[in-house]
Amino acid sequence: MLNGLWLGFFVVAAISALGQWLVGGNAGIFAAMVESIFAMAKLSVEVMVLLFGTLTLWLGFLKIAEQAGIVEWLAKVLGPLFRRLMPEVPPGHPALGLITLNFAANGLGLDNAATPIGLKAMRALQELNPSPTTASNAQILFLVLNASSLTLLPVTIFMYRAQQGAMDPTLVFLPILLATSCSTLVGLLSVAIVQRLRLWDPVVLAYLIPGALLLGGFMALLASMSAAALASLSSILGNLTLFGLIMLFLLIGALKKVKVYETFVEGAKEGFDVAKNLLPYLVAMLCAVGVLRASGALEFGLDGIRHTVEWLGWDTRFVDALPTAMVKPFSGSAARAMLIETMQTHGVDSFPALVAATVQGSTETTFYVLAVYFGAVGIQRTRHAVGCALLAELAGVLGAIGVCYWFFA
């Protein structure tokens, strides 16, 4: 899938360039494409330097949280809920702790760190699967919730914005939180309907109703604020949550007699190992996207969508953010490249860049997650996993666009 997508970028770019040269007489198009390849290769290294630091930092703190028992405590807190949503998983099964840790990594926006943890959780669920080649209900629910990209603290999005020179990297904190809530809620409801899960169970309602009321009240408060006030609140909450979480991990770790420095270094080494493997993928995708943009093919496709949107009488500012949304289900590295390229082209705090950042933070690489997670345990029949995951993906994209018009229009 990734092979075809990557090759397709270059093939489409080549066809577009030939058309501009032979029909439009633009002989300089090839020079622009070659220049873009080298520029994007250089940008990949610059982005990678900050990515090294971000992943190393947060996996270090996550290791402290794990050693301090925070993850285990979360597993106990969420245990009653998972027992209703995943009735085939026995109480205290290791899969529950791994699922919690996976959600914690996703919640922090550490998608690359969450993948190896998620694979361990999927293998643990596979041990309970009565049909090794067919996805179980628990595996489908786990995958769809994973694919819905529940992101509470999107630190990698903040990192990309900081690297591109944003004055306030956390400006998109609240938009991402609201958009990812849409995708997760739709993902949960779609699976619950298909699997006939008893969401009206008193224990499930005890978890969902307070969360829904809290989110509803919060949105009502936001609705009473101006766009400038919303942006300011998003910045304050983003930075406060980020630093508050760090202090929480450190203080609880110290109280539990965890050697916080040594534990941080141990986790940071894991982050370094994860990060160093990403550079080839980042170079490959950023160069492909750069060629696509320089050839004029990307702009040509967006112009077609833009004219359709104008014909419908809608605002067209979100159209330039659509490349990120269109490739995200297939490839995280391609979507990351599209996001960075959008920031470079339109400005890091432009409306398209803000929408693209929100989409990136509130959606997941659905087909990649399906292929990797199910492929790792030999699942061949995915049942309703694809449909439910794509529905959650669509909800995240639409939610991101709507929330950004609310906050930044």
What string, H for helix and E for strand, traces the elements in order?
A: HHHHHHHHHHHHHHHHHH
What is the general shape?
globular
Q: Strand share of the residues?
A: under 5%
Count of discrete structural domains: 1
Helix content range: over 70%
Largest sheet: none
Description:
The radius of gyration is 22 Å and the shape is globular. It has helices at 2-22, 29-67, 70-85, 94-107, 111-126, 137-147, 155-163, 173-195, 202-223, 227-255, 260-276, 279-294, 297-311, 322-327, 332-346, 351-362, 366-376, 385-408. The chain is mainly alpha-helical and 409 residues long. The protein has one domain. The relative contact order is 0.16. The mean pLDDT is 82. It has 18 helices and no strands.
Topology, pairings included?
Blueprint: H1 2-22, H2 29-67, H3 70-85, H4 94-107, H5 111-126, H6 137-147, H7 155-163, H8 173-195, H9 202-223, H10 227-255, H11 260-276, H12 279-294, H13 297-311, H14 322-327, H15 332-346, H16 351-362, H17 366-376, H18 385-408
Outline of this structure?
The protein has 409 residues and is mainly alpha-helical. The protein has helices spanning 2-22, 29-67, 70-85, 94-107, 111-126, 137-147, 155-163, 173-195, 202-223, 227-255, 260-276, 279-294, 297-311, 322-327, 332-346, 351-362, 366-376, 385-408.
